[in-house]
Design goal:
Layout (H helix, E strand, L loop, with lengths): L12 H13 L4 H17 L3 E4 L6 E4 L5 H10 L7 H9 L3 H13 L1 H31 L1
Antiparallel strand pairs: 1-2
Helix pairs in contact: 1-2, 3-4, 3-5, 3-6, 5-6
Length: about 140
């Protein structure tokens, strides 16, 4: 969504220069970078304890000092809920506190598309690795 008719954001020249420099370093036009930073800033303000981290798969929401949100959600899904309490199980297996797991769940409930995209990326990467291993095993078997 593009906001039309809104007044430009009043930012200092120093801040504008920092935005230009970061945009160049990350190969993002300053308006795109500014929108991304605003989005992340509003989310982290809404959910204290959530931070955004850079990594090979791009920026992603994480628990401060902990795993990525998508990893927590994926771990919760892997617990057979008919046998175990998923939150308790993830806390035990990961050394996370219940409040951290609940924070991840709340973030996911507010931004499911963002987290589902990261989970889908992880599944696709896993499939690619499996295919590469199978191809290497075939090549070895053929000698």
């Amino acid at each position: 969504m593009v906001v039309t008719g809104a007044a430009p954001l009043p930012i200092s020249e120093e801040l504008a220069e920092r935005l230009r420099a970061e945009g160049e370093a990350s190969d993002q036009p300053p308006p795109v970078l500014a929108a991304s930073l605003l989005d992340e800033g509003l989310k982290t303000r809404q959910f204290p304890g959530i931070v955004y981290m850079d990594g090979p798969s791009g920026r992603r929401a994480s628990l401060a000092g902990g795993p990525d949100i998508w990893q927590v959600i994926k771990a919760l899904r892997s617990v057979p809920a008919d046998l175990y309490d998923p939150i308790e199980t993830v806390c035990i297996e990961s050394d996370l506190y219940e409040r951290q797991v609940n924070l991840a769940i709340q973030f996911y409930e507010s931004y499911p598309d963002e987290i589902e995209a990261k989970i889908a990326d992880d599944v696709a990467a896993g499939r690619l690795i499996d295919e590469m291993i199978a191809e290497r095993e075939r090549a070895i078997a053929l000698g």
